[in-house]
Amino acid sequence: MSSNNDAEIAHAQKHKYPVAVFFIVVNEFCERFSYYGMKTVLTLYLRDVLLFDENDSTVWYHLFSMLCYFTPVFGAILADTYLGKFKTILYLSCLYACGNVLLSVASIPNTLPQKEFSLLGLFIIALGTGGIKPCVSAFGGDQFIRPQQDKQLEQFFSVFYVAINAGSLISTFVTPILREDVQCFGSNSCFPLAFGVPALLMIIAVVVFFGGRGCYKMRETAGNVMVEVVKCMAHAVVRKIEHREEKHEHWLDFAGDKFDRQLIQDIKQVLRVLLLYVPIPVFWALFDQQGSRWTFQATRMDGTLGVTTIKPDQLQIVNPLLILALVPVFESVIYPCFKKCGLLTPLQRIGTGGLLAGFAFVVSGIVELYLEPTYPSIPDAGMTQLNFINTLPCPLNISYINNNQVKWIEINATSYSFERNLNNQSIDITAQLISSPACQQMNLTIPTWTGRIKGASTKAFSVIVTGHNSKLDLMRMENEEPLDKSSTGQPRVGFVFRQDDQVPNQGNITLKAGERIVSFTRKLIASSSLFIQTDVREIDAGTYDVFMALRNGDVVMENLIGNITVVQGGSYTIVAQQSHFNPQLMNLNNNLLLPIEVTPPSSVHMLWLVPQYFVMTVAEVMFSVTGLQFSFTQAPASMQSVMQATWLLTIAFGNLIVIIVAEAKGIPRQSMEFFLFAGLMALDMLLFFYLAANYTYVKVEEKTKVNEKVGDEGKETKVPDHSLSPIKLGTENSKTPTGTENKGFSDDTPM
């Protein structure tokens, strides 16, 4: 007996680690870099470049994700039945790279019809990444001789897992920087580069994978078990309908006239496991919103961190970082501790993970409640907003008629008042200065003004109160106020300044902070020609010195008119005027500037999102990783590809749930939607616990059979087969099922 063992050990030592694995691991790193790098910035591209609103951007993002998890079924059939794994990976990777290149080119302004070709590129990418998803890890496993190299196979999947997370980590950090910190093609951002680098990595992935073609072991196609399963089930249904007089214990037994009894038994066991899959899509509906709703939530928060700023889409890096940290902790510490106490069986872990995902959305909903006061107040349809800005050194009363009601407001000297939800019609307005010593210096012989001012639906306009020709004057600016927060989270700033007859070379406004110089160009002149508006620009948060420039564009350093401080997420209108128009301004520190905070800044810091990411990552470890391990230890070996395909389909259906909720558009506040998903998850887990309570685990016992040939060598390989014997494991004395974990499926979990 010992001599046989010595022979097996000696035989195992002859098998070297397959060189082909190097090409597969590098290929996976590059492909995951490409996929996650592109997907990290995708939601902001859909909103900011293709100009979808947040709901529609969410819909398109999850449509893309859904397609990525529907197509693996067809990729598996293509690989197992027609082309084999190598050709399937190669051909679909080439298609994948073409989709990346098309998306990058389409993101360049004025090249291709941007919206149509961007969506076409995403469709091609989904076909490529989904098609190769079930093949790459399995193809890597094919390179090893089993069971002699099982130890090396386990090491391969560990390295494979590191490659996945390394690609995800690096790309999630890098691509937001390329998107925001690089300017190209006349834009303040550079999506072509943010998409172009992932495209380059995908091309490298194809080249590397093709370069290893001489080292790979190829298996001949042997048909796809999923096709056989569908045929068997369809035949059973047809025979059950046509032969109602027959009596069978199970409806699948009707297929016994044509299909192998072992296949039928295996399908029965698979169906028992798949019943537990019914509630699983809801988990993915919550999990995948990290890249959509949670990213949009981050854009409305303060990302300032010392001298740097966190990008909203960059925060997604928290998930893969925590995954790498938490998986070893759970496997080596937490699970063994609970196991000693007879707690947290696999199904209990999955259910707990689902409840934690719901709790993560409770946390995100609470954060959203704190964010809501910082959001812009947009007038309803048919309504408008007027921002009365008093530039004079004395207070005034303003009365106007709205909805047949007279309203009075008092505005202090050099102050402002926002009047919201006014009818989008010409409004009769009367303004009256309130007498004070400061007003006497203005020498206004006519201290009243009467007239009509009209706004525009859903928009806001500045109404400047000033003096002109010894009269009180009110004038509405031609261009609307920047109510919305910027999509990048940066402050939005625009200037209104009075033309100075005593400074004929007066021109643009220039801001300076250290090495940064930002110029604001003149836009339209108001009808009175007294005040000029500049363009509205997104600038970095901070404090700036403000200069009035010469009309030829040269900066007059001596003409410093003050300084301003702008905060991330805020929208500002800065009124600049000369001191001889307003003598009281001579006594102010920033004596020529009146800053108007049109929309409050983002006062909630972005790091408050970390708790919900942490809870969601713990949920992923308990739900996703455990779910995959449970599925493949509970299913026959012949059905593992079916289990993988079905697991991926649950992710697709989860994204479909998000699409349905987003398209319904019946939820007025984002916080309510987060709480809705949390409640849905709680109900979903109640259903899961009910199904789990009625589930009987199976004990997997290994035996071997010789049934596969590897490559051109003609050598036979022992492959594990699983026979199933039912045991009840839902009690405290339950033991975790023993068997061989199929890491080829469990390691490439969605991040």
Structure commentary:
The structure is a single chain. The longest helix is centred in the first third of the chain and has 32 residues, at 150-181. It is built from 21 helices and 22 strands.
List the main descriptive attributes of the protein structure presented here.
alpha+beta; 6-stranded mixed sheet; 21 helices; 22 strands; elongated; disordered C terminus
Distance separating the two termini: 47 Å
What is Rg?
33 Å
SS element count, helices: 21
Q: Report on the biggest sheet.
A: 6 strands, mixed
Strand residue percentage: 15-25%
Poorly predicted residue ranges:
501-505, 580-590, 702-751
Secondary structure: helix percent: 40-55%
Q: Tell how many strands the DSSP assignment holds.
A: 22
Looking at the structure, what is the overall shape? elongated
Structural class: alpha+beta
Calculate the mean pLDDT score and round it: 83
List the helices and strands and how they pair.
Blueprint (H helix, E strand, L loop, with lengths): L1 H12 L6 H21 L1 H7 L5 H17 L1 H12 L1 H22 L7 H19 L3 H7 L7 H32 L9 H21 L13 H18 L18 H15 L4 H8 L5 H7 L4 E2 L2 E2 L8 H23 L5 H26 L11 E8 L5 E7 L2 E7 L3 E9 L3 E7 L3 H4 L7 E6 L6 E9 L2 E6 L15 E7 L7 E8 L2 E5 L1 E4 L5 E4 L2 E2 L3 E9 L4 E12 L4 E6 L16 E7 L10 H25 L5 H25 L5 H24 L4 E13 L4 E12 L16 H4 L5
Helix pairs in contact: 2-8, 2-9, 2-10, 3-4, 4-7, 4-19, 5-6, 5-7, 6-7, 6-10, 9-10, 13-16, 13-19, 13-20, 15-18, 16-18, 16-20
Nutshell version of this structure?
By secondary structure, the protein is of the alpha+beta class.
